[in-house]
Amino acid sequence: MGNGTAVLLGAALVTIAASCLAAPIGPESCLDPSGLRSHTRYVDWGPVDGAVVDRNPPPLTWPWDPDDLPPKSPGNWRFQLVVATDVRVLRTVHRDEVNFNVYAMLPPLKPRRRYFWQVKWLDKEGHVQATSEVRSFRIAPDATTYDMSILHSLPRMGHPRFICRPEDLASIRAAREGDTSFGKAAKATRARANEVVAKGSIADSTELRILAAAHLVW
């Protein structure tokens, strides 16, 4: 093959490649964007089914609504969580009903063991409206233990709330009164809250949030 033929052949290949790259990409070649992108507060299942976790126990999360694509207006759900040692979730090690789709109050579990869990969606009357598939996770042999089960002994209260260890309370109060960024923010929040209180009425949700924040740092 002569040099001229090689050049012509190379040019032809470049032309063919360029025409392929320039070809329009049809819908069949594109990934279908997930409808979940429009739900910025969507929470997925966690841990991933079958995962080996290095935190004992792992926090559990699940979607707020049972549908694959949640509705625009979230349902008014209460959740029943069951954790067991068998796939039929009969040998229960923990059971609870909660108002949130995040749970981090499991007791420490046995390392190297597989656990199975399931969620049920309850309506306001407490009737089961949907049941999830059974998912599982395994505790790694060297998993770090985070025992949050003490939270069960605390009252189930809404916001505002601030939870800390008793031995940390003195240092938190000292920081609140100091010149740190936290101390300055606390003083500014108290000053704004005093202005709201002096008026004798709450004008809007912003002022309500100011009072709530002041309650935390008072």
The helix count comes to: 4
Main sheet summary: 6 strands, mixed
The CA-CA distance between the termini, in Å, is 88 Å
Mean pLDDT: 75
Task: Tell me the series of helices and strands, N- to C-terminal.
Answer: HEEEEEEEEHHH
By DSSP, the count of extended strands is 8
Rg, alpha carbons = 28 Å
Strand content: 15-25%
Query: Which structural class should the secondary elements be placed in?
Result: alpha+beta
Distinctive features:
about 220 residues, extended, alpha+beta, two-stranded antiparallel ribbon, 8 strands, 6-stranded mixed β-sheet
Textual characterization of the structure:
The chain is α+β, with helices and mostly antiparallel strands and 218 residues long. The chain contains 4 helices and 8 strands, in the order αββββββββααα. The strands form 2 sheets. Strands 1, 3, 4, 6, 7 and 8 form a 6-stranded mixed β-sheet that branches. A two-stranded antiparallel sheet has the order 2-5. A hairpin with a 5-residue loop joins strand 6 and strand 7. It starts with a helix and ends with a helix.
Short description:
With about 220 residues, the protein is α+β, with helices and mostly antiparallel strands. It has helices at about 5-20, 170-175, 180-200, 205-215; strands spanning about 50-55, 60, 80-85, 90-100, 100-105, 115-120, 130, 135-145. The strands form two sheets. Strands 1, 3, 4, 6, 7 and 8 form a six-stranded mixed sheet that branches.
